[in-house]
């Protein structure tokens, strides 16, 4: 049973599996594998905007992931994609993120700069096709959860290597990539038959957009609800200017400052943000209605613009592209700028920010102690990888795999244990 717009080629798996007598589609089976994966569970203790566990209201990577999947599934269904393929991409999109969010990612990138780098999206592909235990090849090699080609392709947000990144036509994305050198075999298998080198299937584009919508809206909601700033401050002209400046500093000079200011002031005129927040049930309801209104407006604008461009037929794989109105893009970046200004940029000045990076460096160094012998701290699941590594670079990659798999809490516990 193949969904409209998809072929048997799209349903192929890297490691062949025996036919299953089930009423479920191949893509429904993919989704189930992700739902039941240990990697997805670990996201519940990984940082989103605030350190996981420090606030009962704020989102973790897991709650964020579920919200991305809800948004993506709705948009995908409206455009005629198989909703389970979009759901898989959304559920998997943050699996490769290490402890301490982007701070931890930058620390691991420094450590791995001479062995092919570290990038959360590349780690996601590695996890899905190697590290998460589920399916083995006949020779004993791991195929990870062995998703279908369509689902894996939908996860590959930056379909190029670290070496290829500099040649990407959009230079602002050059720091991102999706495959390490020793994962190139499965990457090439997934991308077989892709019409253009840097092309992404529409399911991946929907995931990317849904991620942008979810974290731009919800990071502002979390920041207001946890008292990071008073929403009344958004009406100050100096704050508007600062948010525009921070948005361009973090997300690129391609965002026109006048366009950002226009989008910000337009949201203020429409009464997008609450005037105040006191933590009452009424205030929480107003805040929740802010998020649902923004998500609905963004999703509707994209669905309508894409349908205007492609008509009402089903869109799947490489049959079309998501069309995002410029006004929607600018409003999303404004929301990101608000989170940067009030939460993320100040957070980088806190002592805990430097401590998190030190934890990542110390844990990696601990796992490399005694190289080439495995450290006592190396988890059993990584021991075979260590023994099969051909050189120091290969063993360092194994150490990084373990550190990246840790949650914020388990990283801190292991670090404290090592110091005793």
Any overview of this molecule?
With 420 residues, this protein is mainly alpha-helical. The protein has 18 helices and no strands. Among the domains are: 146 residues, no CATH class; 56 residues. Helix 2 packs parallel to helix 5. The protein is globular. About 2% of the residues have low confidence.
What structural keywords apply?
mainly alpha, globular, 420 residues, 18 helices, 0% strand
What's the arrangement of secondary structure elements?
Layout: H1 8-11, H2 26-35, H3 38-42, H4 61-79, H5 83-92, H6 101-111, H7 120-131, H8 149-155, H9 184-190, H10 202-225, H11 237-251, H12 257-269, H13 281-310, H14 326-347, H15 351-368, H16 380-388, H17 392-405, H18 408-419
| Rg on CA atoms, Å | 22 Å
Name the beta content range. under 5%
**First CA to last CA: what distance?**
57 Å
The count of strands amounts to 0
- Helix/strand/pairing category: mainly alpha
SSE topology string: HHHHHHHHHHHHHHHHHH
Please tell me the overall pLDDT: 90
Largest sheet: none
Fraction of helical residues: 55-70%
Q: Shape from CA axes?
A: globular
């Amino acid at each position: 049973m193949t969904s409209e717009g998809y072929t048997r080629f799209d349903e192929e798996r890297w490691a062949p599996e025996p036919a299953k007598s089930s009423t479920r589609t191949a893509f429904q089976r993919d989704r189930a594998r992700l739902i039941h994966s240990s990697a997805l569970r670990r996201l519940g203790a990984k940082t989103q905007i605030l350190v996981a566990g420090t606030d009962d209201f704020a989102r973790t990577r897991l709650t964020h992931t579920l919200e991305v999947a809800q948004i993506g599934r709705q948009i995908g269904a409206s455009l005629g994609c198989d909703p389970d393929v979009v759901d898989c991409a959304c559920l998997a999109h943050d699996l490769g993120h290490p402890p301490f969010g982007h701070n931890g990612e930058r620390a691991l990138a420094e450590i791995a700069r001479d062995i092919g780098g570290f990038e959360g999206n590349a780690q996601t592909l590695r996890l899905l096709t190697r590290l998460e235990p589920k399916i083995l090849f006949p020779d004993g090699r791991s195929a990870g959860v062995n998703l279908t080609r369509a689902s894996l392709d939908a996860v590959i947000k930056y379909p190029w290597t670290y070496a290829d990144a500099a040649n990407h036509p959009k230079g602002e994305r050059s720091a991102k990539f999706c495959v390490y050198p020793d994962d190139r075999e499965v990457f090439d298998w997934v991308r077989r038959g892709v019409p253009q080198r840097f092309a992404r299937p529409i399911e991946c584009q929907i995931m990317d957009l849904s991620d942008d919508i979810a974290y731009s809206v919800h990071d502002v909601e979390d920041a207001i609800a946890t008292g990071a700033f008073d929403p009344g401050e958004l009406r100050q002209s100096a704050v508007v200017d600062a948010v525009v400046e921070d948005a361009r500093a973090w997300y690129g000079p391609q965002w026109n400052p006048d366009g950002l200011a226009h989008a910000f002031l337009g949201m203020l005129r429409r009464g997008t943000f609450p005037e105040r927040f006191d933590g009452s049930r009424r205030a929480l309801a107003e805040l929740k209605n802010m998020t649902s209104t923004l998500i609905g407006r963004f999703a509707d604008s994209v669905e309508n613009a894409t349908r205007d461009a492609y008509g009402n037929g089903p869109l799947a794989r490489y049959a079309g592209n998501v069309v995002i109105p410029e006004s929607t893009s600018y409003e999303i970046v404004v929301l990101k700028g608000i989170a940067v200004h009030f939460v993320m940029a100040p957070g980088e000045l806190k002592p805990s920010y430097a401590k998190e990076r030190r934890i990542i460096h110390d844990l990696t160094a601990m796992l490399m102690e005694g190289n080439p012998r495995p450290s006592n701290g190396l988890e059993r699941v990584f021991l075979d990888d260590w023994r099969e590594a051909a050189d120091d670079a290969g063993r360092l990659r194994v150490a990084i795999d373990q550190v990246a798999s840790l949650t914020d809490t388990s990283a801190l516990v292991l670090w404290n244990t090592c110091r005793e």
